[in-house]
Design brief:
There is one protein chain. Helix content is 21%, strand content 43%. It is of the alpha+beta class. The chain has one domain (5-99). A 5-stranded antiparallel β-sheet has the order 8-5-4-3-9. β1 (5-6) and β2 (9-10) form a beta hairpin. The longest helix is centred in the N-terminal third of the chain and has 21 residues, at 12-32. It is elongated.
Length: 101
């Protein structure tokens, strides 16, 4: 994070920004780590393109989500070497996912 530092500590303004960033990150992880949550993720396709895949969180433990794909996207892709097909289960980090609308 950039900003003004004082005596090797972030200035009050920078500290507030850091706190807000940490709170937003924690909130996103909490929302996406609920079994039954409908989550989406952007997956790179080729150079400069991406596809959105969607699914339902089946299980969450610490820093991993078990997600059942129900919307694999337009192009067959993969996450962590796991193919994206309808009904497939992938294991991934919660910070890569957001709540779908």
């Amino acid at each position: 994070m950039s900003g003004r530092w004082q005596h090797d500590l972030p200035s009050p303004t920078l500290a507030a920004q850091m706190s807000a960033t940490i709170q937003a990150y924690a909130s996103q992880i909490a929302r996406t780590s609920v079994p039954g949550a409908r989550v989406c993720r952007s997956v790179p396709v080729g150079i400069g393109n991406s596809d959105v895949v969607g699914r339902i969180v089946r299980r969450a433990e610490r820093d991993r989500l078990w997600i059942v794909i129900d919307r694999p996207g337009r192009v067959v892709g993969e996450i962590n070497g796991q193919p994206l097909k309808t009904g497939a289960e992938v294991v991934d980090s919660p910070e890569a996912w957001v709540i779908c609308r």
